TrEMBL record, chains A, B:
Pfam families: Ldh_2. The lineage of its organism: Bacteria, Bacillati, Bacillota, Bacilli, Bacillales. GO terms for molecular function: oxidoreductase activity. The keyword Nucleus does not apply. InterPro entries: Mal/L-sulf/L-lact_DH-like_ah, Mal/L-sulf/L-lact_DH-like_NADP, Mal/L-sulfo/L-lacto_DH-like_sf, Malate/L-lactate_DH-like. It comes from Gracilibacillus salitolerans. This is Ldh family oxidoreductase. Keywords: Oxidoreductase. It comes from the Bacteria. Belongs to the LDH2/MDH2 oxidoreductase family.
């Protein structure tokens, strides 16, 4: 159930940032975390939006995130670096890693930066969009705690390790792929379970490793990798680059943000940034991207298909709408944020969109 | 139907190489093309093996591949390069691009090399295995001619653009993912059609864009990307890096190897190579990979599952077997190669494994 209130994304971001500052985070860093969350809400990726404020705060309070940590470069070369996040917020560590990768890309053509000792870093799209502001291409990965079985396995072993790719276009919105490596978001199974609906075959297995269409059983079991063995392989390779290569956790050594209160998550990320100009003139590239997209959009469509879409296009449209019309939150999230506000002496109501009142005729 | 003859992979490679030399290819380059094909047969990826000899030769004869081309670096930076393949064999161009990427990785940590004006380059695994000999990690991509529709489309627009990832391990075989971005290889649908069997829902659409389980209808339609919209996005991003960024063809501008005799293919490839030592000591990395793999192999398994496998593991085992016991070819391929041999004054029989005869007792 959603609230009927509409929140200004800018004010919501200020609200979250102020909360994080009051919880002990430096202003500049609190801004990054808040921007990363609110941007997800703007783009319609509500699962990664301000809904995470409460858990982030709880992990700070329980000393599972260290907002005073020193994020430092442990190893560096012309085009590579390894960053130790010191268990800071994922978004803050990620932002630093991205900036370093971008700097390197501008010099040598490529920046490849691995990160260890980090936390949930929000959406990959957040970083891809930052790099797109400077016309840089990116491939961004992160590992995550266990949710999917290996092919042949019966219980969670790898995370739904996300992959994001950002590529600038000319007249069109950027190509922005940001996907988990599971068939479907676990959230969709939760919704089906709440509604008492069944789920399609192939989404999940039950706790005994058997295929199930029962949403309740699926939640006790595991969500499956996309495309079977192929998704298992993709998810593993993301885990290898983000975790095994960086010194972060991998497989069972990445700890669950919601369930593990003994150990930091030790999430790992991997940022690849490249300078398009080092391959081809950026303007020519953008023209070629526009041709590619106009070609694909011009393809004959199936019945009931209004338009062929490009990765990131829906999210970009939702973002424009929500910037203008405001963000609507689930009641549960609104209540949580209201309580958090109360605790820190802030009113969530201050983040509402201003009502535009027209003068009535004759009054 | 397969022949009962067993071929020595080394002799089969010599046979193919000699054929290419006689068709006008330089010895060193013919060796690369032959090695790439035979390695695919060794690893059980027969679709990319010596079955391609005939079409490669035909394209040389029809001047659709230029074996005398100058492959040159068009643009270069510390960590990047753009190579113009001059329409040489894909494997020869790919080999040059890989070597350049490896050289750069050893210096700056990363090599990222794009390729245009190339042809079918065999399997991505071939290049990944070359880099693995030097303990380098790789991400390798290529685009291909149109076989899959975009989400919402009804006819082929993008290729089943392959992605390969190679990562060294210690005690275990390397992690070697090499996959097309389709749900399933088109070859499996061909086999089902030949047997008059139906195919599972979700593999393909018919020529009107409707889901079909009829293999014949599927062959007139399109094979689908893995994981629906996600596979469509992955395949597009491979097309963007391999084609749009490099100046090669992309989408409909990559020409079909079997059907287009007017224009060269203009395939594009993209090689990313990285030096693990620049992030973490290679021995420590290998130990971590071994732990990762032993963890996943130790997971509880589903009923009827003997073993949890790692990407590339089956292929590596088949390769060991075929090196020892020989390669068996489909009758059609054996006949084709025999004819090719006759044309160039070579006998395919010279590539058979030697029969090991034991002395009979008392004789």
């Amino acid at each position: 159930m959603t609230s009927s209130n509409k929140y200004s994304y800018k004010k919501l971001q200020d609200f979250c940032s102020t909360v994080f500052v009051k919880a002990g985070v430096m202003k500049e860093q609190a801004d990054i975390v808040a921007a990363s969350l609110v941007q997800a809400d703007l783009r319609g990726v509500d699962s990664h939006g301000v809904v995470r404020t409460a858990i982030y705060l709880k992990r700070v309070e329980q000393k599972m995130i260290n907002p005073a940590a020193d994020i430092h470069i442990e190893k560096e070369n012309e085009s590579t670096a390894l960053i130790d996040g010191g268990n800071h917020f994922g978004a803050v560590v990620g932002d630093k890693a991205l900036k370093l990768a971008m700097e390197k890309a501008k010099t040598t053509g490529v920046g490849m930066v691995g990160v260890k000792n980090s936390n949930h870093f929000g959406t990959g799209a957040y970083y891809a969009l930052e790099a797109l502001k400077q016309d840089l291409g990116t491939i961004i990965m992160s590992n995550a705690s266990q949710t999917m079985p290996p092919t042949g396995g019966v219980r969670p072993f790898i995370g739904t390790n996300p992959l994001a790719v950002g590529i600038p276009c000319g007249a069109y919105q950027p190509f922005l792929l940001d996907m988990a490596t599971s068939v479907v978001a676990r959230g969709k199974i939760i919704v089906a379970a709440q509604k008492g609906e069944s789920i399609p075959q192939g989404w999940a297995i039950d706790k005994n490793g058997k295929p199930t269409t029962n949403a309740e059983e699926a939640l006790e079991g595991s969500v499956l990798p996309l495309g079977g063995t192929k998704g298992y392989g993709i998810s593993m390779f993301i885990d290898i680059l983000s975790g095994v290569l960086t010194g972060a956790g991998f497989g069972k050594y990445v700890h669950n943000m919601y369930e593990d209160w003994e150990k930091p998550q030790n999430v790992g990320h991997f940022f690849i940034t490249f300078d398009i100009n080092k391959f081809i003139d950026i303007q020519e590239f953008k023209n070629r991207m526009d041709l590619y997209i106009s070609d694909v959009k011009g393809e004959p469509r199936g019945e009931d298909v209004d338009e062929i879409l490009i990765p990131g296009e829906i999210e970009s449209r939702i973002s424009e709408q929500r910037k203008k019309n405001g963000i609507i939150l689930p009641l549960k999230v609104e209540n949580e944020l209201t309580e958090i506000g109360l605790k820190y002496g802030l009113s969530l109501k201050d983040a509402l969109m201003k009502k535009v009142c027209k003068e009535s005729e004759g009054v």
